[in-house]
Design brief:
The protein has about 230 residues and is of the alpha+beta class. It has two domains: about 1-125, Rossmann fold, CATH 3.40.50; about 150-230, no CATH class. The chain is built from six helices and eleven strands. Helix 3 crosses helix 4 and helix 3 (about 150-160) packs parallel to helix 6. GO terms for molecular function: ATP binding; ATP hydrolysis activity; phosphate transmembrane transporter activity. This is ATP-binding cassette domain-containing protein.
C-alpha cells in the first residue's frame, strides 16, 4: 500500500519521506482551514502498469475558497492508496471528487481533469449513476437507507440489473453480507430495518451495500472509525 501523507506543516516545498512514498507538500493556512498541494511519488512499483484513476491539476473550490490546490496523481489498477493528514486538510474533499459526490454540495466546483480508465468523469454527458456504481464509497459515519437490511444491500444490484432473478439477488445479498462480516449476525432478521442495527453493524451494512454492485474502485473515508472492535479482529 502506498501512503500519501498530507502533513500539517506550513513550510512551502517541504520534502516529506514516508516508508512507501515521497511527496512535496505545500499548505497555506486560512483561519481554521488548510489548502494542500501534494505530489506523491511511489517508491514501490504498482501491481499493474495500467492507470485506473488520474488527476491532472485538480482544484476544488467551495465558493471562492480553494480547498484542493493542483493535485497531480496517478492510481494504478489494483493499487491500494492511503491519504493521511490532519483534519480539514482535504482528504474527504478529494475522495469525493473521484465519484462526483461533490456535485451534491452547493457552490462546490472542480477544475482540472480527473479520469477513470482514461475517460473524463466530469464530462457533462457522463452517466453519474453508472460512475458511482463503478466507484463506490463508504463514509466515516454509517448511512444505511431507511429500508430493510436485505433491501439496503439489494438496492444497487436491482437498480443496475445485476440479478437475473430473486434467487440470484438473494445470493448477491448473502455473499456481500458475508464479505462484510455481517451475515451471521443478521441472517435471521433480514426484513428488519437497517437503521435498527448498532453503529458498527450499520457500517458493515454500508460496506456490504457498496460491494454488492462489484465496483471497480472503492473509496473509504475512515470507515473503521465506526466499526465495533469485534468487527476488526
Amino acid at each position: 500500500m502506498n501512503t500519501i501523507d498530507i502533513t500539517n506543516s506550513l513550510e512551502k516545498d517541504k520534502l516529506v519521506n514516508t516508508e512507501q512514498s515521497q511527496l512535496t507538500d505545500t499548505q497555506l493556512h486560512h483561519g481554521t482551514s488548510y489548502v494542500s498541494h501534494f505530489e506523491p511519488h511511489a517508491s514501490k512499483k504498482p501491481n499493474s502498469t495500467e492507470i485506473k484513476i488520474s488527476a491532472q491539476d485538480a482544484h476544488v473550490y467551495y465558493g471562492d475558497f480553494e480547498a484542493i490546490k493542483g493535485i497531480d496523481l496517478d492510481i494504478y489498477q489494483n493499487e491500494v492508496i492511503a491519504f493521511i493528514g490532519p483534519s480539514g486538510c482535504g482528504k474527504s474533499t478529494f475522495l469525493r471528487t473521484l465519484n462526483r459526490m461533490n456535485d451534491t454540495i452547493d457552490g462546490c466546483r472542480v477544475t482540472g481533469k480527473i479520469t477513470l480508465d482514461n475517460k473524463n468523469i466530469y464530462d457533462p454527458n457522463l452517466d453519474v449513476v453508472l460512475l458511482r456504481a463503478q466507484v463506490g464509497m463508504v463514509f466515516q459515519k454509517p448511512n444505511p437507507f431507511p429500508k430493510s437490511i436485505f433491501d439496503n444491500v439489494a438496492y444497487g444490484p436491482k437498480l443496475h440489473g445485476l440479478a437475473r432473478d430473486k434467487y440470484d439477488l438473494e445470493e448477491i445479498v448473502e455473499n456481500s453480507l458475508r464479505k462484510a462480516g455481517l451475515w451471521e449476525e443478521v441472517k435471521d432478521r433480514l426484513n428488519q430495518p437497517g437503521t435498527g442495527l448498532s453503529g458498527g453493524q450499520q457500517q458493515r451494512l454500508c460496506i456490504a451495500r457498496t460491494i454488492a454492485v462489484s465496483p471497480e474502485v472503492i473509496l473509504m473515508d475512515e470507515p473503521c472509525s465506526a466499526l465495533d472492535p469485534i468487527a476488526t479482529a
